[in-house]
Amino acid sequence: MLILLKGGRIVDPVNERDEIGDLWIENDHIVAAPPDRLADEVHDVSGKIVMAGAIDIHSHIAGGNVNTARLLLPEKHQNRVPNPPALPLCTAKWSTFETGTIYASMGFTTVIEPAIVPDQALQAHLELSDIPIIDKGTLTVLGNDDFLLSLLRDGEGPAAVADYVASAVGASNGLGVKCINAGGATAFKYNARTFSLDDVVPFYGLTSRQIVEALQRAVLDLKIPHPLHLHANNLGIPGNVATAIATIEAARGGRLHFAHLQFYSYGSEGEKGFSSAAADLAAAVNAAPNVTVDVGQVMFRQTVFISADVLRQFNLAEMARPKKSVIHDGDGNGGGIVPYLYRENDFVNAIQWACGLELFMLIDDPWQVFFTTDHPNGAPFTTYPEIFALIMSRDVRAEAIARLPQDAVAMTTLPSIAREYNLNEIAIMTRAAPAKLLGLKDRGHLGEGGLADVAVYSPGKDLAKMFRFAHLVFKDGDLVVRDGRVIHYRWGKALKINPGYDKAIDRRLAGYYDHHFGVSRDLFAVTENLLPRAGAFREVACAR
Amino acid sequence: MHEARINGKPVLLAAAAERAAEILSAARMPVIAGLGTDVAGARAAILLAERLRGAYDHMHSTRIFADLDVMRQAGLMFTTPSEARLRADVFLFIGKDLTKIWPAMMERLSPAEIPPFDLARERRKLLWIAPGRGAKADGLTIETLDSSNLHTTLAALRASAAGRPVRCAKSARRKLDEFAEVLKNARFGVAVWGGYSLDSLSIEMLHGLIRDLNKTTRFSGLPLGYDSNASGVVQTSGWMTGFPVRTSFGRGFPEHDTWRFDATRMIESGEADAALWISAYGVEAPQWKKNVPLVALASPQTAFAREPEVRIEIGCPGTDHDAAEFARETGSIVSRKASHPSQASSVEAVIGQIAKHLGGDA
């Protein structure tokens, strides 16, 4: 099947294209214009914007904690509109099926679930298998797991740590390594109520800094394409910008991805002891080219905090709206689920919203800052179109700022910022840069040989509408969305790495599970024949 | 090999599947009940329920919702058996049926062993409320507290732990205070209960106690869950529809209501006019009395009050075929290798056969 997208504005920063032109697709790949052949299918996309499919590097879409949140809040996701189901379970709000459908209709074709602890990996992959259309990937959460901490305590050295990390990521079919409040969840089991970079984990005698350094080193040694994905200490606390800057410095020039930076951009100035320190933090990021960040933008609406930072979630439980929460002292990280309502007229929430936008605006390089809401922690991913409008239009921002408590606005620099993202920068931030960050050479661009993941948008005055309802979306060359509606399901792959390591560590791990947990490690295997469809995975090479 | 029957007469599986599809698609409101199956079976059943615009329920829903209703009304703090085994310095067991619910519990939690991750590395304390006769943990003295009303006992214990007044006999008061002191001094305490002993109000009271204790120390809960992969089916239902079992597609989208979509109630009241009963783990049969057309996917030894219109024998997940299911021993969905692989059909495979006759596949 040869498809021609004719006469659109092609925005492809990787190939330095921003011009009116044609795009050819043959089967699942993008091809050069074939001489002497007619397309089997021609789409006139004149007046439209043509981009690669978007990639979300950090969105909580699967796994035990997400599912607990669904079960905790049945009243928040009821469908009330009788509509015959066009596609299986697409009417089920917050289901895996709806998740894939909404992402696709916005032009997203790859989404990374960033927080899967090894003992939840099978459930996570079962859930991901039921997310239609998009490709997926998971990051394996390490850094509060007793085996790792005991290796570090016993001074076993980087080779043993790397073997273990490779084994854990391999067994959970992950695409990279995530670390969430390193040591903090374990310290909480020993009744710590705060935990910072140089605090010591009881029983193990290790600091958070040491754990992060060890994982960063292992990721480097294993040549895992995605740098260590870090959820730092002290999330959400006034004055935590100091922790964020210290964490960036602690990377000592090594590659590090700092997740949902907005939640770490708080000062403690002013009468209420809460202010935006986003400008200082953006400056620190601008000075650290080894570091990438994603924003974790807040939007005003009901949402729910879903996090494996169980210590933070426990401390937040008092603020739950509605007033109920789940705290899970799980193996390794565990997690917590705390519903929350961000309100426009709330002083703190307004500053949080502004902090995110300041980071978007003040971090200079769109290759360094990534577009996320930390779904659903800052806001559900369904708010992305509104956020595109906010960063692309000063006027849209000004209107939104005018609705906020002005004493809150005064604690930020947002009103003074004139920057507007252009489409090329949007394409970098949501396509080109995520593909590079994750080591996915086959996507994020529209060059010859690339995967035919393509999103076509209808430009208009209403930027949010443009991004909410893609005109056309192709996944692997298959037209799946027309005018913002999914036409049919197809089933994407889970992207994973398979780093090489000395298998002797597997025997040690088997013994550790038998002795400590009293169960076989085999129980936690992500067995491919238990997933609903064959060929669920695609391997991404470990090399840099 | 599987066996299939229509009205008691042996037939080929294909014929049974076709007849099952006729019965279910002819119904105004079919209900899928029992739902004792692995993740793959539950997944197939829920997709089938949507196509039939029917409802689905699990045989252990009453007990599922004893815990789940507390979680979604008040919240929950819970841990895993591994964490309990490795860290708990204090166990609070509640009810006489814990080891009946989970025969391997003592071995798995090893209360008599010193918790390897406890800083003090002292012998654990085991408190047991309403232990019944014969409660023992080899090598460990159990402190017991009898109770004729668990809700009242838990309320009194919570009050005592919070330093609030409790009115009861002096001797009982002393015991309560002793228990409360142990709980407050726990470093990582774990309360263990099963749904057979505690109703929602008692579980909520226990949860309140756990929350209170966490103001100064660490304490968590370990609900033992229910058989026939109830937790695994609830999880699967959660990601597929957003809701647990007792969900209906009657209006074209999933609606969840623990009263309206109780399978037995729907059938007894005449709201549901056909049923698909699934029980792959044991020999459970439907509890309803009313006579509705019944398709049963059941273990070979199942005894039905009345011969189902269609009966298809199925294998046991994790025994006859590999399965993903919720494991009580880990508190998560695990990969279970077939212990005695056989040709017996899985629920997923049989539903796949039935769905073929509904046009297209899910």
| Strand order across the largest sheet of chain B | 2-1-15-14-13-3-4-11-12
**Over the alpha carbons, how many angstroms does the gyration radius of chain A reach?**
23 Å
Largest interface (CB within 8 Å) is between: A-B, 65 and 66 residues
Shape assignment of chain A: globular
Give the topology string of chain B: H per helix, E per strand.
Answer: EEHEHEHEHEHHEEHHEHEHEEHEEEEEH
Overall pLDDT of chain B: 95
Please tell me the overall pLDDT of chain A: 97
The number of E-state strands of chain B comes to 17
Q: Largest sheet of chain A, if any?
A: 10 strands, parallel
Number of DSSP helices of chain A? 17
Unreliable residue stretches of chain A? none
Provide the CATH topology of the largest domain in chain B.
Rossmann fold
CA radius of gyration of chain B is: 23 Å
| Sheet of most strands of chain B | 9 strands, mixed
Q: What's the N-to-C terminus distance of chain B?
A: 26 Å
Low-confidence stretches of chain B: none
CATH class division of the largest domain in chain B: Alpha Beta
CATH architecture of the largest domain in chain B: 3-Layer(aba) Sandwich
β-strand amount of chain B:
15-25%
